[in-house]
């Protein structure tokens, strides 16, 4: 039996088992589905939609090309990607998964990136946004705002390391295809490119807005489907004791790093879905806070199969390979865990001692800073569903209008 037939049999059996499990555990599957839907409805959709729409405007008006020309001297030497990668990186940091993949795919479709450059760029521009790290993880799960700075710095420093590492990806193939591009900074050239890109697009503002809403909502609907699917899948694997069986192998790895086996199940759950894994890690009483944060940091960086499936679906519309992205997630998880170990004492332990022994607290550790993230997170949970509902109504109206004409 060849590999192709074996793959077909495995996929068919997996789909059959999942369908049977849905019929055996209808109540649990429904609850898991509602959990995924709630997360998408309240958090993912309203938090990502503005960034997606704004990014479409910036691309349509030529701002991305303008920034790309200015950032070329920075991005090309460091990460071996064009200057437009700086825009993708910034938007990915601000908005979170999977904005970096969507923007990379869009720029690849417009031939602003080569295949190799796109594979490098997508590997380090997908990250968790600060609001989720500080609001959901640090405050919501751990009830400890001071952990936010450790998790955030570990996450983003790990991402930079991934970018520096992935600059070597495809280097031999690239040298046979293209020469080094000009790295000189020219404001006049950047402004000229801005104007030319706007003229090249040619769409009126109303058309750009309509297309931006439709494209963004369509992508977010796909993302919502993956979130619900993996929420149900994660629950079914738990009910079938598959996660318990797999956690036995994870326990061996954790034992090597002197991490208690009680964290094996949260880690395995986090490999499938970030939110559930992080929540379970924060509730593991047998482990120390230090150990909980290390595992959570790895989970955030690895991003889970749920997010990776979203990225794979977006990249499937282009010729960008998913494999480098997956490898980069493994490296990101390792880097983030290492940075958590290195930053734990100076940024958390020493800070706790400082708070007890002195009133002099560094600015970025003050409670007001964390209250901003907590307040923003609560606002998102309160008004997010309204934003989602209005946006979906606008999407339906625009789609019907387009079909009418």
TrEMBL record:
Annotated Nucleoside transporter/FeoB GTPase Gate domain residues: 43-140
UniProt xrefs under InterPro entries: Gate_dom, Spore_IM_YlbJ
Annotated TM spans: 6-25, 37-67, 208-230, 236-256, 293-314, 326-344, 380-400
Top-level taxon in the UniProt lineage: Bacteria
Pfam family, one: Gate
Entry keywords, A to Z: Membrane, Transmembrane, Transmembrane helix
NCBIfam families associated with the record: spore_ylbJ
Protein name: Sporulation integral membrane protein YlbJ
Gene encoding the protein: ylbJ
């Amino acid at each position: 039996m060849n590999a192709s037939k074996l793959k077909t049999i495995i996929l068919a059996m997996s789909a059959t088992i999942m369908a049977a499990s849905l019929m055996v555990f209808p109540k649990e599957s429904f609850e898991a589905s509602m959990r995924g839907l709630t997360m998408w409805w309240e958090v993912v959709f309203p938090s990502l939609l503005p960034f997606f729409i704004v990014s479409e405007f910036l691309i349509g008006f030529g701002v991305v090309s303008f920034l790309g020309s200015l950032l070329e001297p920075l991005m090309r030497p460091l990460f071996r990607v064009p200057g437009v990668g700086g825009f993708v990186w910034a938007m990915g940091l601000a908005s979170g998964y999977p904005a970096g993949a969507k923007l990379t795919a869009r720029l690849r479709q417009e031939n602003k990136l080569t295949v190799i450059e796109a594979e490098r760029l997508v590997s380090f521009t997908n990250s968790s946004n600060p609001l989720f790290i500080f609001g959901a993880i640090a405050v919501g799960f751990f009830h400890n705002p001071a952990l936010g700075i450790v998790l955030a710095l570990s996450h983003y420093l790990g991402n930079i390391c991934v970018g520096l590492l992935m600059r070597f990806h495809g280097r031999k193939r690239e040298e046979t295809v293209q020469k080094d591009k000009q790295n000189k900074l020219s404001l006049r050239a950047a402004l000229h490119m801005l104007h030319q890109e706007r003229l090249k697009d040619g769409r009126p503002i109303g058309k750009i807005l309509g297309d931006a809403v439709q494209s963004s909502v369509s992508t977010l609907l796909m993302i919502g489907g993956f979130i619900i699917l993996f929420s149900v899948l994660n629950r079914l694997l738990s009910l079938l004791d598959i996660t318990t069986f797999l956690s036995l192998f994870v326990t061996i790895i954790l034992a090597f790093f002197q991490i208690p086996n009680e964290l094996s199940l949260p880690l395995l759950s986090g490999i499938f879905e970030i939110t559930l894994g992080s929540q379970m890690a924060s509730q593991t009483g047998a482990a120390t806070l230090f150990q909980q944060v290390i595992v959570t940091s790895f989970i955030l960086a690895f991003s889970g199969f749920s997010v990776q499936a979203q990225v794979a679906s977006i990249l499937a519309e282009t010729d960008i390979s998913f494999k480098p992205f997956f490898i980069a997630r493994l490296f990101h998880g390792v880097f983030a865990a290492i940075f958590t170990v290195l930053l734990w004492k100076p940024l958390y332990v020493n800070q706790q001692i400082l708070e007890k022994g002195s009133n002099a607290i560094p600015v970025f550790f003050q409670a007001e800073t964390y209250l901003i993230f907590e307040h923003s997170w609560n606002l998102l949970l309160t008004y997010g569903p309204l934003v989602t509902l209005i946006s979906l109504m606008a999407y339906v109206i625009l789609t019907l209008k387009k079909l009418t004409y």
